[in-house]
Design a protein that fits this description.
The chain is mostly helical and 480 residues long. Helix content is 72%, strand content 2%.
C-alpha cells in the first residue's frame, strides 16, 4: 500500500506543472511556456526598436538588433532555468523566471549609442557583466539587509512603476499613431475580462493558461477588426544567423563603465525582487542563497555573451514572475520551452515577426493583470511584517519618495544628467536605498523582533530543505 502510494506521488511529482523540478508532458508545458514568451516578447524588442530609430539605422541593421535581442534573452533564460554546477557553485537561479532586455539601462543605452556608438556601449556592458558576477557572490552576505518589509516594499514599487507601461500599451502604445483610440481600450478590457474569467472560473490547464487564453481572444478580435498588419510576416526571411560584433570592436570609456557598474547593482536588486516573487508566489518559500547568488552570476555571464552578440543587458521580467504568482505554474521546463522557442526565433526572423504582430492593446490588457499581481505580491510580503508602526514607517515613506521622484522627474532638472538618470528613470534605487536605511535605524518593538526571528528561521529552513533534497537526490543517483 505504501509502495503504491509512493509510486503515485512520484508520478505526480515528475508530471506536475506546479512542481519546480517536475517534467510535465510537452502538450502541457509548451503552451504555458509560450504564454510566458508572449508576455515578455514585445517588451524585449522595444528597447532595440527605440535605439535603432534613435540611431537612424537601416532595415537590415535594425533587424539584426532585433534578432540579437531575442537571442540574448533566450540564452539568459536558459542559463537561469537550467543552471550549470561546478562543485558547490551554481550558475543560474533554477527558479521559474524569464529574462529579457532590462529597461534599467534604456536611457543610457540610447544616449551612448547615439553619441558614441554601440561599441562604447557594449564595452561598458562587458565590464559591468564582470562586476555583476562579483555582486552575485556578495549577495548572500548582504541578504540580511533585505527582510520582508524591505523586499516587499521594493517589489511593490516594481509593480507600481510598471503600471504606466501597461497603461500606455493598453491605449495602443506610446508613440503609436493609434494611441488613445477607443478600440484599443475595448480590446484591452476584453483581454482583462477574459483572463479574470479563465483564471477565476477555469480549472487545471484553463486556469494555468489564463493569460495566454486572454491574449488569444484579444488577438483574434483585433485580427477580425483589421487592426493587425501581417505584411512584416511575408517580408521576413526564414533563416538568418546573428553576427557577433556587427557594429565594430568594443571600446572602453571609464565614465560609462562606472555608470554601468552602478546600473548593474540596481539591476541585481530588481532581479532579487523578481526571484522573491517567483519563489514566494509559485513555491511558497523564500529563494535560497545559492539561487540568488547563481541568478545574479548567470545574468552577468549572459550580459558578457550579449556584449559580443550585439544585445543589451538582460534582467528578469516582472510580468513573467507575476504570471507565476497568478497561476502558480512554477515548473522549470515550462520556462525552458519558452526559452527554447525564443532562442529558435532568433534564427528565424519570420517566426519573430509573427510574434511581433501582437497589438499593443492586447499586451497592455495582459500586463494590467500581471503587474497588479506583482504589486500584490509585494504587499503580501509587507503584510508579513504585520503592518506594525515600524513597518508602515519603512514602506510608506520609501514608496512615496521613490515613486514620487520618478513620477515628477523634472524635480531633478537642476542636478545634472546622471542624477536624473539614476533617480528619475527608475524608482527602485531610491525606494530600496531609503527602505534599507529606515530598516537599519528605526527601533524594533517585540512584534518586530518576532517577525525578524521568523524570517531568519524561514531562510534557515529553506536552506536545510534544499540541502536535504540534494542529499536525497545523490542517494537516489547512487542507488541507480
Amino acid at each position: 500500500m505504501n509502495k503504491n502510494a509512493s509510486k503515485s506521488t512520484s508520478t505526480i511529482k515528475t508530471g506536475s506543472i506546479y512542481e519546480l523540478n517536475g517534467r510535465p508532458p510537452f502538450a502541457q508545458a509548451f503552451p504555458l511556456g509560450f504564454q510566458q514568451l508572449l508576455a515578455m516578447f514585445v517588451g524585449n524588442i522595444v528597447p532595440m526598436i527605440l535605439v535603432a530609430n534613435a540611431c537612424g539605422m537601416d532595415t537590415s541593421h535594425a533587424t539584426l538588433l532585433l534578432q540579437c535581442s531575442i537571442l540574448g534573452a533566450g540564452v539568459a533564460t536558459l542559463l537561469q532555468v537550467f543552471p550549470i554546477r561546478f562543485g558547490n557553485l551554481q550558475f543560474g537561479s533554477g527558479l521559474p523566471v524569464m529574462m529579457g532586455l532590462t529597461y534599467t539601462f534604456l536611457p543610457i543605452c540610447i544616449s551612448v549609442s547615439v553619441n558614441y556608438g554601440l561599441g562604447v556601449l557594449f564595452g561598458a556592458q562587458l565590464v559591468g557583466g564582470l562586476v555583476s558576477i562579483v555582486i552575485g557572490f556578495a549577495l548572500p552576505k548582504i541578504r540580511r539587509f533585505f527582510p520582508p518589509v524591505v523586499t516587499g516594499t521594493i517589489i511593490t514599487s516594481i509593480g507600481i512603476s510598471c503600471f504606466p507601461i501597461a497603461a500606455y500599451n493598453l491605449a495602443g502604445g506610446q508613440g503609436d499613431p493609434s494611441m488613445g483610440q477607443l478600440h484599443n481600450f475595448v480590446i484591452g478590457l476584453i483581454v482583462i475580462l477574459a483572463i479574470l474569467i479563465l483564471n477565476g472560473y477555469g480549472k487545471g490547464m484553463v486556469s494555468a493558461a489564463a493569460v495566454l487564453g486572454g491574449m488569444i481572444v484579444g488577438y483574434v478580435i483585433a485580427a477580425i477588426c483589421g487592426y493587425i498588419n501581417f505584411a512584416p510576416i511575408s517580408e521576413a526571411a526564414w533563416f538568418a544567423v546573428p553576427r557577433p560584433m556587427a557594429f565594430g570592436k568594443l571600446e572602453f570609456h571609464l565614465n560609462f563603465v562606472l555608470v554601468f557598474i552602478l546600473l548593474f547593482f540596481i539591476n541585481a536588486v530588481e532581479m532579487s525582487g523578481d526571484f522573491t516573487v517567483s519563489a514566494t508566489g509559485g513555491l511558497n518559500r523564500q529563494p535560497k542563497n545559492e539561487e540568488l547568488r547563481g541568478g545574479i552570476i548567470a545574468n552577468g555571464i549572459a550580459c558578457i555573451f550579449s556584449s559580443f552578440f550585439n544585445c543589451f543587458a538582460t534582467g528578469t521580467y516582472s510580468q513573467c514572475s507575476g504570471i507565476v504568482a497568478l497561476t502558480k505554474v512554477c515548473n522549470r521546463w515550462v520556462m525552458g520551452w519558452g526559452a527554447i522557442t525564443l532562442t529558435a526565433a532568433a534564427f528565424c526572423p519570420k517566426l519573430a515577426s509573427v510574434l511581433s504582430t501582437i497589438p499593443n492593446c492586447v499586451i497592455g490588457g495582459a500586463t494590467i493583470v500581471v503587474f497588479s499581481m506583482i504589486c500584490m505580491s509585494g504587499m503580501s510580503l509587507v503584510a508579513r511584517a504585520r503592518f506594525t508602526n515600524r513597518a508602515m514607517l519603512i514602506c510608506g515613506p520609501a514608496l512615496a519618495l521613490g515613486l514620487g521622484i520618478s513620477l515628477a522627474k523634472d524635480t531633478l532638472s537642476g542636478m545634472g544628467e546622471y542624477v536624473q538618470m539614476f533617480f528619475g528613470e527608475s524608482s527602485i534605487i531610491l525606494v530600496a536605498g531609503f527602505a534599507i536605511v529606515l530598516n537599519l535605524i528605526l527601533p524594533k518593538d517585540q512584534t518586530d523582533q518576532e517577525v525578524e526571528a521568523e524570517y531568519i528561521r524561514e531562510i534557515s529552513q529553506t536552506e536545510e530543505d534544499g540541502a536535504a533534497s540534494e542529499n536525497g537526490n545523490e542517494l537516489e543517483t547512487a542507488k541507480a
